[in-house]
Design goal:
It holds the Pfam family SpoIIIAC. This is Stage III sporulation protein AD. It comes from Thermoanaerobacterium thermosaccharolyticum (Clostridium thermosaccharolyticum). InterPro entries: Spore_III_AC/AD, Spore_III_AD. It is a single chain. This protein is mostly helical and about 130 residues long. The chain has a domain at about 65-125. About 90% of the residues lie in helices and about 0% in strands. It is built from four helices and no strands. It has helices at about 1-25, 25-60, 65-90, 95-125. Helix 1 (about 1-25) packs antiparallel against helix 2, helix 2 runs antiparallel to helix 3 (about 65-90) and helix 3 packs antiparallel against helix 4. About 5% of the residues are buried.
């Protein structure tokens, strides 16, 4: 089970980090980054399966694939931004974390504009 691997990596990393944060903060940040990347690579196949299932559902329901692709991009940006925020927080760089979070939100709003426009057009066409 992947969750056992993920939890084991997390626990080992926590033990190592609790020792290293006192003596070598730079190495602690690098180890935290490596553990995060390892965990990410463990879940990549699951992400691929999710995308396949969502594409199948979109095809069956007749939803325009552009909307699904946009939503998947938005979800990806949210996760990547959160990853960057957490790494910045781990490195005690709160200012950078705040800027990454703001940039992620702005990009998400920008990407969602076509969906918002389509939604407004649909609502306007329904109204008498």
């Amino acid at each position: 089970m992947e969750i056992v691997q993920i939890v084991a990596i997390g626990i080992i990393c926590i033990i190592i980090l609790s020792i290293l944060r006192e003596t070598n903060k730079d190495l602690a940040v690098i180890i935290s980054l490596i553990a995060s990347i390892l965990i990410f690579f463990i879940v990549i196949p699951k992400i691929s399966n999710i995308i396949t299932v969502l594409n199948t559902i979109a095809d069956k329901s007749g939803i325009n694939s552009i909307y699904l692709k946009t939503i998947l991009k938005i979800i990806g940006i949210a996760y990547i931004a959160e990853f960057g925020v957490q790494l910045s927080n781990d490195a005690n760089e709160k200012n950078i974390a705040t800027k990454i979070e703001l940039a992620g939100k702005i990009i998400i709003v920008f990407l969602s504009l076509p969906i918002i426009i389509a939604l407004v057009d649909t609502i306007v066409s329904i109204m008498p």
